[in-house]
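Translate sequence into structure tokens.
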Amino acid sequence: MSGTGKGLIHQPVYLDCAATTPVLPEVRDEVVRYLEVDFGNAGSRTHDYGRRARKAVEQARDRIAGAVGASRGDVVFTSGATESNNLALAGLAGHGARTGQRHIVSTAIEHHAVLEPLAELERRGFEVERIQPDAGGMVDAGKVARAVRPDTLLVSVMHVNNETGVIQPIREIADALEPTSVILHVDGAQGFGADPGALGHERVDLISISGHKVHAPKGVGALVARRRAGRLPELEPLMFGGGQERGWRPGTLPVALIAGFGKAVALLLAESENRARRCREFRRTLLEGLAPLEPVMNGDAERTVPHIVNFSLPGVGAEVAIEAWEDLVAISHGAACASTSYTCSHVLSAMQLAGWQQDGALRLSWCHVTPMPDLEAMVRAIERAREESRGVAR
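Result follows.
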């Protein structure tokens, strides 16, 4: 329910937190403070307005670094994980060309924010090898390691798949790369805070993060560029001017967004166990309530994060299910970034799922503040849709 000034109106329960999360009240208050009160430019060092802004930025930098076992100077603020991915991948192109390392290992299930920069690197003469997942949606760490060659510049593997919620074996990949000089990049947008041990592995060189996945505002993120043997990855900027953020990401820092991001991370770290417990309870109740519909899981349930589930309902296509539930829940058909075109998911296709599973795939995702929807009504709505489908078929 939500207020409109004329009373309460019904709103479907939001079950698309893998696309974006609601901004928490404490985070909103932090953002407003740095919009209305401490609104100085973090680059202004001659007065208190600028110094307070700088302090907020560095506090946020400390919090984000601490979440992955990095140092303050390793955190570069960006507009989000898409920009961070581009900086991490395209930013290494010059180094790869100079050293003759033009081979890249990645996977077939990456987010488009990784796949498309990799495709651009291919157009520039790099060779990209994409590891296929198993039927449960996980890539094999051994296959990734065996694909590495003497001329391999980079390995890029996502932490948690945005469509299936399946956790990828980042620790094992990092361990396997330990004796090599290969750079390891992890798209951590979906898994940041869910499995800190993986992103905290000292062999992970580059981590992309988005604030809006952890209850911060949209438009802010970070690239963590961890030092190895005292040296940062040899990135080159994609933009120029101003020299901010080590020169890798120039421009006036969005202090209010960064402060909100830092506050969101502080809350995440303080509440991580309780949040995970609530999400697990939500998942259990949700799946028990929808059990009469006989959902078929897409992705290994033993390896998924507690706040994402991807399933298909026998006899019901995804668009039919979304329409049947439109007054009850707000959900996604596959990846939200591609929701304007209901085409086959490249992730589910790589998993080689049956055609009906791919066509009917639904992603439901939630957070620790998500209310439970009316599960009985959801079941009835799908049963009606099935009946109508049978009637049309006859």
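Note: The first strand starts at residue 2 and ends at 3.
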